[in-house]
Amino acid sequence: MTDRLAAAGIGLAALVALPFLLPTDSYYLHILIQVLLLGLIYTAWGFMGRFGLVSLGHGAFMGIGAYTSSLLWNLYGVTPWLGIPAGMVLAVLLALVIGYPCFHLKIVGHYFALVTLALGQVVALLIIAGRDFTGGSLGLTPRAVGTSWFAVQFQNRTAFYFIALALWLAVLGVRHWASHGMRRAALEAIGEDETAAEAAGINVLREKLRVFVVSAAATAAGGSIFAQYIMYLNPETVSGVGISLQIVFAAIAGGMYSALGPTVGALLTLALTEGLRVLFGTSFIGAANTIYGILLILFIIFMPRGILGVVEQGLRRRPRPQAAPAE
Amino acid sequence: MDIYLLEAVMNGIMLGGLLALLALGLNLIFGVIDVVWVCYAELVMGGMYAIYWLHAVYAWPFLLACAAAIVLVALFGLVLHRLIIEPILGSAPINQLLATGGMLFFLQSFATLLFGTDFRNVGIRLPVIDLGEIDLSFARLLAFIVALVGAAGLYLFLARTYLGTAIRAIAQDREIMGLMGVDPRRIYLITSAIGGGLAGLAACLLVLQYDVHPFIGLTFGPITFMICVLGGLGNMFGGVIAAFIMSLIISIVGYYFSVEISYVLAFVLFIVLILLRPRGILAR
Fold first, then answer.
1. Nearest chain A residue (CA) to B100
2. Which chain A residue lies closest to B221 (C-alpha atoms)?
3. Taking CA atoms, what residue in B is nearest to A120?
4. Which candidate from B98, B104, B275 shows the least CB-CB separation from A101?
5. What does each C-alpha distance from B45 to A43, B104, B108, B200 come to in angstroms?
6. For residue range B123-168, what is the model confidence (pLDDT) as tens digits?
């Protein structure tokens, strides 16, 4: 355990030091910020995905977060410091409205996936239908005011880096806290056999709702900050089927059962997209996603636990003096 | 009755036939193999591109291009099952759904890579039928009729032939059938090919009404899954009913409000119905 703590400490120190080693307008810093922001969204998805709650509609929560804070700012001048929590609250409410009947009526597996798919479509379509406010398919740009803490807008990337890092750490922290002891055992039991878990005295409905709500809130927060950073929202890029599936696949490719897996997934997918873009320019639109699609299929067939899952399994197989912790 | 509303209703019924055909293929796979082909609408897209290239570019006669597209997509369905579904048949159902989701990504972006994002039209203009004050598109009527004929053909195949009976039997009890001398592997392959063929048939009908582009699958895909589930898995008749309910909602609400609102309502209705009747609208 001390090994792991030391490794985490060194990793954290490196992450904090990193922006001071790079120029503030660095392209790599730009990529890193996106890795952290997407990584935390993927982590939030994996938070429920690993217990068998596969959502194909997390774009709904990302879109709600992004559009709530941006619209409150553009229409009423409300600071994102209030807008982001507002988006999280809305996402939580939506998760409760969908989650409660689903879990109460034992909608699982395929069915839960399809319900969330429909949910993602509903939110994306409502954003498009509300084009008078949201700009519809043309997208929306938060009103720019230069560098301002009040507006959560910074010319300087370092500030965004630290906001992203803090939020990413917070999501990892929540994941760690919820993956401990009895709660983790309870959730794993639910993931494996709901009826048996119920019989063992676990309040299945409450545990599942908790996981869903936390995941939705974190995804909404990530979506908001992502919009603040990119300064452009579009129903296709922050909501809808495309982004929802992207979340699922990146999390799985990285390994949703490992704490850092989804972040590795974010790193991998961004490196792939950017690498191919640099290599081929824009003449091969679709090349990145073509390779991405093939990789996903291969991942699911040959290593469903993802990259980090395979790495961890390999490490665990090595004989050790003490029993290695499960995570 | 408002003449435009009547036109919307008629168009809704026509669309219902098409959606029913789409849902039928997916339903067959779902019911027999217990796998959701998330990329089903992308197979249709592939078929549409095949017809476009064969007919508009290589000047094959339209019907020959259609036949070729049906065979091609059927073969693709077979390969899809053999290469992607078969290795993971034993793992969690959600993995199969996700693997075909990867295929969706692949097909969409591969089509973008090959053909670009241009909208392509096969260049066949069918006449508009004048029914007094209502205009009815012949392409839609044709799609409706062919879809119903296709559905009836599938029904007869499943109900009257030995192979069809075996397919239905596997859908009911996959463990027992192996003991009865039916090779499930062969049945799965045949079912996948039929599912693909139905996607190819849908492509022939869609290509007459819509331009083909790499993302056209997203227009039909989600609604097709919903219809499938609403009808009840493996319940062909339920699927047809659900297709007409959905298409009527889409066209009537679309007439009064907007297309987006009509789809929102259809998806919300799906969520509500699946909660009320998880086994489908016709379940007892």
1. A297
2. A241
3. B267
4. B275
5. 33, 11, 9, 9
6. 777 778 777 777 778 888 888 898 889 888 988 998 898 888 888 8
Chain B residue closest in CA terms to A243: B105
A143–chain B nearest CA distance, Å:
27
| A100–chain B Cβ distance below 8 A for any pair | no
- Calculate the alpha carbon distances from A104 to A108, A112, A115, A225, A285 in Å: 10, 12, 14, 33, 44
Cβ contact A290–B102 (<8 Å): no
Domain-embedded: residue A292: no
Q: Which of B179, B55, B39, B48 is nearest to B97 (CA)?
A: B39
pLDDT in tens, A5-36: 888 888 888 888 888 887 767 888 889 999 99
Q: Report CB contact under 8 Å: B104, A249.
A: no
Find the distance separating the first CA and the last CA of chain A, reported in whole Å.
10
* CB proximity under 8 Å: A 256-285 to B: 284-285
Q: Could A286 and B110 be called an inter-chain contact, meaning their C-beta atoms sit closer than 8 Å? A: yes
How crowded is residue B88: how many other Cβ atoms within 10 Å of its Cβ? 19
Pick the residue of A122, A277, A283 with the most B CBs within 10 A to test the interface with B by mutation.
A122
Tokens read off for B272 = 């509500």
Q: Is the pTM of this model over 0.80?
A: yes
Give Cα A250 to chain centroid, integer Å.
9
The Cα–Cα gap between A215 and A223 comes to: 12
Q: Is B38 helix (H, G, I), strand (E, B) or coil?
A: coil
Domain membership of residue A246 (yes or no) is no
Which residues is B135 bridged to in the sheet? B130
Q: How far is CA A191 from the centre of its chain?
A: 20
Could you list the beta-strand ranges (E) of chain B.
Answer: 128-131, 134-137
Report the length, in residues, of chain A: 327
CB-CB under 8 Å, A248 with B101: yes
CA A184 to chain B, closest CA, distance in angstroms equals: 21
Nearest Cβ partner for B105 among A105, A287, A289 = A289
Backbone angles phi, psi at B10, to 5 degrees: -60, -45
| pLDDT for position A327 | 42
Domains in chain A: how many in total? Answer: 1
**Residues A97-101: contacts with CB within 8 Å, 24+ apart?**
A98/B271, A99/A208, A99/A209, A99/A212, A99/A213, A100/A205, A100/A209, A101/B275
ipTM: 0.82
User: Using CA atoms, how far apart are residues B263 and A274, in angstroms rounded to an integer?
Assistant: 35
Which residue range is the domain that position A229 belongs to?
A: 9-238
Q: Alpha helix locations (H) across A56-79? A: 58-76
Write down the domain spans for chain B.
21-214
Q: Which two tokens stand for residue A258?
A: 């490992």
Strands (E), B118-214: 128-131, 134-137
Contacts of B274 in chain A (CB under 8 A): 107, 111, 114-115
Beta bridge partners of A153: A148
Give the SS3 label for residue B161: coil
Specify if A257 maps to a domain.
no
Q: Is A71 helix (H, G, I), strand (E, B) or coil?
A: helix
